[in-house]
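FW: tagging you since you asked about this chain on Friday. Here's the raw sequence from the shared folder, copied in full. Didn't touch anything.
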Amino acid sequence: MSNYQDEGLPGVDALQVEQRYSEERAKRLRPEGDSQFIDISHSADFQSFLEDPWVDPTKIKDAKTMFPNDRCQMLILGAGLGGLVYAVRMIEAGIQPQHIRLVDIAGGFGGTWYWNRYPGLSCDIESYCYLPLLEETGYIPKHRYSYGEEIHEYANIIAEKWGLSENAVFQTKAQKLVWDERTKEWAVELEQRRIGEPPQKLDIHVPFVVTVNGVLNWPKLPGIPGILDFQGDIFHPSRWNYSVTGGSPADQSLTKLQDKRVAIIGTGCTAVQIVPHLARWAKQLYVVQRTPASVDHREQRETDLGWFHKEVTISPGWQRERLRNFHQHFTTEEQPLNNLVGDAWTHGKAIVGICGNIHGPKTPDELPAYMRKLHALDLPRQTRIRQRVEEEVQDLKVAKSLQAWHPSWCKRPVLHDDYLSMFNRENVTLLDTEGHGPTRITTNSIVVGEQSYPVDLIVFATGYRAPFTGTPAEKANATIIGRDGISMTDVWARNGPSTQHAVLDHNFPNLFLSGPWQGANSPNYLFAVDTFAKHASYIFKEANEQSKGKPFAISPTAEAAEDWSMQVAMHSAPMAAIIGCTPSYLNVEGSLDQAPPEMQMIIARSGLWGSGIENFIDIIEAWRKEGSMQGIEVQV
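HL: got it, structure written out here
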C-alpha cells in the first residue's frame, strides 16, 4: 500500500506554519553565504580530501598516446553518465567513436557514481527513468531505485556498447581552452596527473568541445575551525575510506567501526543514506544537524521482471513516455490521470516551485498569489512528513528536532525508509545545532556549543560546490577564451550567457554546453543533459552537412542569442519561488535573496526556463521540425 495519500489537516494553521518557516530560515542565514564553505579543489591545505581511492594506476593510459598528432575531432570534458550520453548522441549524428575523447580527472567512467561509493548509496529517481538508454541497451535495473555500484557498472556497459571504452583519457584535466577563429578549432591545454609520476602537460587542437562536468563534482567542507587539527580519521563521502570503516562498495559490513565513535556532519541526501549503516556498526554515532531533512517514503523494492515486461516496456519509446508522465505531475496543473511512477516526486505537486510551471506567474505582480497557491499545495505533504517523524521516532524531543520546517521546493526532497528509526537506537545521538553548525573541531573531538564529544572518525557529508553558480568554465575548473579573446568567466559575470536553447553561446563557437543555464532542468538531471545532447547533436549534424567537408564554426547569431535570453528572462517568474527559501545550494546559501537590483536581470536571463522541461522540449523540437536552423550561423 502506498504511503502517498492526501490527509486532512485538523488543527494546522497555515499562517503559523509559514511563520515557522521564516523563523527556521533565519537560523540558517549567514552573511558570508556560500563562502562559509571550503572549496577543496581551490585550497592547497585540503588536497588530501581529493585523493582517488578507486583508481587502478595500471589501467590509466598515457595521455600523449591518446591524441595522435595532438588532435581529435571532439573532446568531451567529463566521463560521467552525462558525458557518455552526449557521446552517444554525437555518434548517432555521425561522429565515429574513435574520433571522440572523453577527459576526466577520475580513474574511470561514472562521474558522481565513480567517486561516490559510500554505504547505502542509491539514486533518488526511480531507475526506469534515471538510467539512460535502457531501450537501446536492453538492460533491466535490479531495483526500483538503483544502488550506486549498479549505476557505476551501467556506465561501463554504455561505454562498451558504443565503442567508447578505449577512448577515455583519465586522471586528466582541461586547464585552458582558447578559440582560434582562423582555423575554427580550440587550442586546449591538458594536464594528466598519474599516481607516482610528475604532471604531464599536453597541447592539443580540437574542432569541437563538449562541457559535461556534472553538478556534483567538486566536494566542499564547512569552514569549521580546527578541521586540520583533528588526529583521527576524516573524509568526505565522495572519497569513502573503507580501509578505515571496513567493508567495500559491494559488502557494506563496516566491521572496523565496532569500537569507534563516529560523527557525521550533515543531514542532507547523502547523510540520510549513510546514517543507517553507521548506526548499525559504530559503537557510538553522533549525527550533527544544522537543518533537518524532509524525509519522505522511498518504498524500495526489487524489480519484478513480469511486471517490468508487462507494465513498463509496453511499446517503443516507453522510457520517454514514462519520463513525460513523471514530469507532468509537477510542471503543470493538467496532470495525467495515470501515474506511471507513483513516487514521492509525482505526489509532491508543490515541487513545481523549483521545476518550473507552464501555468505559473508571468509577472512579478502575480508572485504573491502564486506563492499562496504553492504553500496551499504543499501544506498537506509537509505536514504528513512532519507527522511521520513523530510516528517513527520514540523520543519526542528528538522527533521535534528532526522535523523539517521549509517548503518542499526549497531543498531536494529526501527519500528513505530507515533513516528516522535509527534515532531510536541507544548508540545514536542527534546533535542539533539549531542552524549554526559545529563550533569547532579539536585534535580528538567535535564541539557543539560548549559541549565536546570525543570521536575517532568524522565524515563530512557537506555536499558539493553550488551546481548552478559560475559558468561551464568554473564547473570544469578551467579557463575558456572565446571570440576576440573574451573570457567566459568575465562575460557571463557582466551579461550572463548568450545562448540559443542553452547549447551554444554566441561568443564560444563549437563549444557545446550541457545546461542548465538558459535551459530547463528536471529532478532527473541526467535526462536534462540528454535533452541538450539530442539538440546539440542535431545542430552539429545539420551544420556538418552544410559545410561539405570544410572546417566550420557553429554558433547562434548575436540577435538570436539576445532574443532567447530575453525569452528566458520573460519566463523566469515561476523560478522566483526559491527566493526566501531556507539556505541551500539551490539558492546559493541564500545569496540570491541578496542580489543587488543591477544583478537581477542578469540572474533572470541566466536562469532556468520557468515553464518547465516538457514545455522547453516542445519548443526545441518544434524548432528542429521547422528545419531551417533559424538563429544558428554556420561559418565555413
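FW: Residues 61-217+466-572+607-635 form a domain with the FAD/NAD(P)-binding domain fold (CATH 3.50.50.60).
HL: agreed, and The radius of gyration is 24 Å.
FW: great, closing this out.
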